[in-house]
Amino acid sequence: MLAYIIRRLLLIVPTLLGIMVLNFVIIQAAPGGPVEQMLAKIQGEAVDATARVSGTGSSEIQGSGTAPQGASASQNSKYRGAQGVPPELIEEIEQQFGFDKPAHERFFQMMGNYIRFDFGNSFYRDESVVDLVLEKMPVSISLGIWTTLLVYLISIPLGIKKAIRDGSRFDIWSSGAVILGNAIPSFLFAILLIVVFAGGRYFDLFPLRGLVSDNWSELSTFEQITDYFWHMALPVLSMVIGGFASLTMLTKNSFLEEINKQYVITARAKGLHENRVLYGHVFRNAMLIVIAGFPATFIGVFFTGSMLTEIIFSLDGLGLLGFEAAINRDYPVLFGTLYFFTLLGLVMNLIGDVMYHIIDPRVDFEAR
């Protein structure tokens, strides 16, 4: 197993490098980079979309990026919106964002810094990437922990009961809830919860935004805990609805597969109590794939599943940070978080394989 772990650790290097190269090429090729956005601000073009639509007419919108006659900048500039901007100012902006160097040189310099976990500073905020991530982490940790905990607490018992009572009325009716959970995206369910329970149309029982209330520091300890869960209720519930369905079916199918195996039939023939057969023999084998997949599931809920939820409920977490970084082309935040959480995900996948072996030593990846 040690040799397998070493090989997997070594494989992380080319995998991570390939992911970073692919994303770097795609993002660099996308229009509207930081230099172009800065040029747009200088020329007064970086206005809100609603303001542009509410203008006097289409001719004004079409002419907003037209350079004045006698512009000193070259018409062949590689940046959109550079007409009319002095070349020396463009060079100064390029140096400010590090775009005065070739793309490959910038990439290798970036990767050299990331190997030392030096993620630099945000382009648009006077903070380092690490400080920004640490500042947003409590929201994502809250969503990730409570969502994963509830998903497992609901899905495993429900999946086991569905397997034991396969084909019964309970199995049929509960399958309806599972199908509904698979059919409704979490963000649509989040909007439904807001409409029904957060003052959207019917009831005003839960807050619409934030992790805690504005006067949280003035509350007692019990009131602070209550206020925290009061704010977490709707966001977590919206994320649980999508996660519990797939895990419930995975648990049920794992149990059904094990229940029909020869060793279960033999155990029952020996007169063992049904609970002893199910929870003493079947449970360990059936739960192997479910429990071993916990690290990857947690990372998935923690970092990828919360972006839309954070945006809908105005929660200032990592998902919202990544979304804003992509919109604003804040490359240090974008690539820094991509590097760190991709590395974390690859390590978690390895931990999941190790857990397979720990839970069931018969699973030998080295032999395979």
From TrEMBL:
Q: Which GO terms describe its cellular component?
A: plasma membrane
Q: What keywords does the record list, in alphabetical order? A: Cell inner membrane, Cell membrane, Membrane, Transmembrane, Transmembrane helix, Transport
Principal location class: membrane
Subcellular localization(s) per the UniProt record: Cell inner membrane; Cell membrane
In this chain the ABC transmembrane type-1 domain maps to 137-352
GO terms in the biological process aspect are: microcin transport; transmembrane transport
Answer yes or no on keyword Nucleotide-binding. Answer: no
Q: How does it sit in the membrane?
A: Multi-pass membrane protein
Q: Which Pfam families match?
A: BPD_transp_1
Which intervals of the chain are annotated as region Disordered? Answer: 55-82
Q: What name does UniProt use for this protein?
A: Putative oligopeptide transporter subunit permease component of ABC superfamily
Q: Which organism is it from?
A: Candidatus Terasakiella magnetica
Q: Gene of origin?
A: yejB
